[in-house]
């Protein structure tokens, strides 16, 4: 920092004299208008004193600082006031008139300049548009498509009359007739022809189909053309067999793993008969079976009738190649129902080693295939034959999809199989059960979601699980070579017993269900629901924990709530509980003080009394109470009253 050189001189403004803030006055004057140097240099007066034994320091005068800032402010105000006065003197009436005349002219000039600037900016875009238009005009059938688009706009309008649409449609079909194969692969042309199929007459549809029939394979693989093939299947179902025959010539194996055409084969598969499906599957078993249709309902029967071992291996090899390519493609190819059927055929007929080889590629993506019956079987099979490490990978692959999988019509089978064979109870509890507990209400009331809980509470109960499910839940058997003899034997593919696995899972399920049904509102809704009442029933008799409290809550609720007593379904549930457990029946009999009134009330309450008479432990006390009112009961006109009378006289 520079030191001040001494006093400042009062010369013209702009000269820099020493250290300090410099404030110049106009025309070299001070704040009062004189020519003196006062007010020109508003600096700090600094004096230097020497400190004993140290360096000199500056001593600031704070009073001078305040004065200088005041004078600077005053001089600025005086200068601005002078400027305002001079401006007012110059702005005379004549000048105002001139300014008024010139202003609109100036605005017009500015607008013209803006327009010119915009035109200059748009010139490159205009040149670009003209270039693209010329390029389009050089393309084949450009004019035809322009005219077709105009007609298409009329045809697709919903508010147009039927006669006007038919007239425009005739002109449109006449215009594009003979040119369909040339224009079909363009996105706008594809939409035009789809509209013609949608609104056209049967004759017009057949005309378009016949012209495009040789192009079906290419259309199926086309980005825009595959939509047209779907329209053929929807609006001309009688030509489906012809479409299938044409597609067979284009190699179904390649079409099924193509991201455009796989959806067409999905539509064909879901709408085909079992016979047609079997014929389609033959295309994947090798060229011989594709040309000469083999006899048999499935691959297993075909292999049994084939005496040549080399041919049998060739069939499995062809199927394995396709299965691997489909699995490696991943979603959405692997979601195709036809792919699921082929995978099921492979797992049913391939050797154990071959199954493990394919499972290694698909164990992480099983969630993609379990929405069909065949896909769910494949998923359950992978869990059955896999090692502990494979099963852990499968469970990790379900992360985020457990709730959805439990509510799948077929997919819940995968969860049942996991609960049934996986020895790692901690893993199952953490990644499966805890996920289900997050939305336990939805699962308990769902027709498929409840089955996961029921499988823990009452495993393999035929009342809840159909034969198809029970067949898939058979113990998983795999071949194993004996070290001593070298012979192959079949062993079960788990270490713990089913009872030991259930003993680990049951406490977690019981705790969650008892807590859920402990809420009176949930309990009231559950007894009225067909599916939730079954979970409640099994919880009462098979759960671990404070079940007696839940039993008392059920008895209290169903014997005091008037609305529930008038619900026949609820009373049927109460009767079932009484007949299933004698202790529950005794407690219920004590809770119903006036049993005659229950017989009089309605059929539901009357049959609850019938249920108490059927229980050995409650029969004597209930009989003794009702015999005194036998004549009154005989006068009642109801089936429940008739049953009570018969039991009293027996």
Shape: extended
Mean pLDDT: 82
Number of beta strands: 4
Biggest sheet statistics: 2 strands, antiparallel
Percent helix, as a range, is 55-70%
N-end to C-end Cα span:
123 Å
Low-confidence stretches: 1-90, 99-106
Computed Rg = 46 Å
Query: Number of helix segments?
Result: 38
Instruction: Assess the beta-strand content as a share of residues.
Output: under 5%
Structural class: mainly alpha
* Side-by-side strand order of the widest sheet: 1-2
List the helices and strands and how they pair.
Elements: E1 46-49, E2 57-60, H1 62-90, H2 93-138, H3 142-155, H4 162-176, H5 180-183, H6 187-199, H7 202-212, H8 216-221, H9 225-235, H10 240-248, H11 252-256, H12 262-270, H13 274-282, H14 287-291, H15 299-305, H16 309-329, H17 337-349, H18 352-362, H19 373-385, H20 388-397, H21 402-406, H22 412-421, H23 425-437, H24 440-444, H25 450-457, H26 467-472, E3 477-481, E4 488-492, H27 498-517, H28 520-528, H29 530-542, H30 547-560, H31 562-565, H32 568-580, H33 582-591, H34 595-601, H35 603-614, H36 619-627, H37 630-634, H38 639-649
Antiparallel strand pairs: 1-2, 3-4
Commentary on this structure:
The chain has 650 residues and is mainly α. The strands form 2 sheets. Strands 1-2 form a two-stranded antiparallel sheet. The chain starts with 45 loop residues before the first strand and ends with a helix. The model is unreliable at 1-90 and 99-106 (pLDDT under 50).
């Amino acid at each position: 920092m520079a030191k001040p050189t001494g006093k400042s001189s009062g010369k013209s403004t702009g000269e820099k004299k020493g250290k300090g803030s410099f404030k110049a006055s106009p025309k070299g004057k001070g704040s009062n208008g004189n020519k003196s140097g006062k007010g020109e240099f508003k600096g700090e007066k600094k004096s230097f004193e020497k400190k004993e034994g140290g360096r000199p320091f500056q001593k600031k005068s704070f009073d001078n600082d305040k004065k200088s800032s005041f004078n600077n402010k005053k001089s600025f105000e005086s200068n601005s006031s002078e400027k305002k006065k001079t401006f007012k003197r110059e702005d005379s009436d004549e000048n105002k008139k001139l300014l008024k005349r010139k202003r609109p002219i100036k605005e017009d000039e500015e607008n013209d300049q803006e327009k010119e600037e915009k035109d200059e900016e748009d010139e490159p875009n205009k040149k670009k548009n003209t270039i693209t238009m010329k390029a389009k005009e050089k393309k084949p059938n450009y004019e035809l498509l322009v005219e077709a688009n105009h007609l298409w706009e009329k045809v697709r309008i919903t508010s147009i009359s039927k006669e006007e649409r038919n007239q425009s449609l005739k002109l449109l079909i006449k215009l594009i007739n003979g040119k369909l194969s040339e224009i079909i692969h363009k996105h706008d042309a594809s939409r035009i022809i789809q509209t013609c199929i949608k609104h056209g007459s049967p004759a017009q549809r057949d005309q378009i189909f016949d012209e495009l029939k040789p192009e079906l394979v290419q259309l199926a693989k086309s980005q825009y053309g595959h939509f047209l093939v779907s329209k053929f299947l929807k609006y001309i179902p009688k030509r489906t067999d012809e479409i299938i025959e044409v597609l067979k010539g284009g190699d179904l194996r390649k079409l099924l793993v193509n991201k455009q055409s796989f959806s067409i084969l999905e539509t064909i598969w879901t709408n085909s008969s079992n016979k047609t499906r079997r014929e389609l599957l033959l295309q994947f078993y090798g060229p011989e079976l594709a040309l000469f249709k083999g006899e048999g309902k499935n691959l297993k029967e075909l292999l049994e009738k084939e005496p040549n071992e080399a041919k049998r291996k060739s069939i499995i090899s062809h199927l394995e190649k396709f299965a691997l390519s489909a699995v490696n493609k991943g979603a959405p190819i692997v979601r195709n129902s036809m792919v699921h059927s082929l995978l099921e055929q492979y797992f049913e007929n391939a050797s154990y080693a071959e199954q493990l080889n394919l499972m290694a590629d698909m164990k992480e993506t099983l969630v993609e295939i379990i929405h069909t019956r065949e896909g769910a079987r494949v998923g359950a099979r992978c869990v059955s034959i896999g090692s502990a490490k494979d099963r852990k990978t499968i469970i990790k692959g379900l992360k985020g999809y457990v709730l959805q999988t439990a509510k799948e019509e077929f997919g819940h089978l995968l969860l049942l199989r996991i609960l049934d064979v996986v020895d790692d109870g901690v893993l199952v509890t953490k990644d499966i059960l805890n996920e289900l507990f997050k939305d336990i209400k939805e699962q308990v009331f769902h027709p498929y979601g409840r089955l996961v809980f029921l499988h823990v509470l009452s495993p393999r109960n035929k009342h809840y699980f159909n034969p198809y499910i029970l067949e898939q839940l058979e113990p998983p058997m795999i071949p194993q070579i004996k070290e001593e003899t070298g012979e192959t034997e079949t062993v079960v593919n788990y270490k713990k017993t089913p009872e030991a696995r259930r003993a680990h899972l049951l406490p977690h399920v019981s705790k969650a269900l008892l807590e859920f049904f402990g809420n009176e509102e949930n309990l009231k809704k559950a007894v009225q629901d067909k599916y939730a009442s079954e979970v409640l029933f099994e919880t009462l008799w098979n759960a671990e924990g404070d079940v007696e409290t839940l039993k008392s809550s059920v008895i209290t609720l169903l014997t005091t709530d008037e609305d529930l007593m008038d619900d026949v379904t609820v009373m049927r549930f109460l009767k079932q509980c009484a007949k299933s457990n004698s202790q529950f029946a005794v407690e219920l009999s004590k809770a119903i003080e006036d049993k005659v009134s229950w017989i009089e009330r309605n059929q539901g309450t009357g049959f609850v009394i019938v249920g108490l008479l059927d229980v050995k432990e409650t029969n004597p006390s209930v009989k003794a109470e009702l015999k005194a009112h036998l004549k009154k009961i005989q006068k009642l006109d109801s089936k429940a009253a008739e049953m009570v009378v018969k039991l009293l006289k027996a």
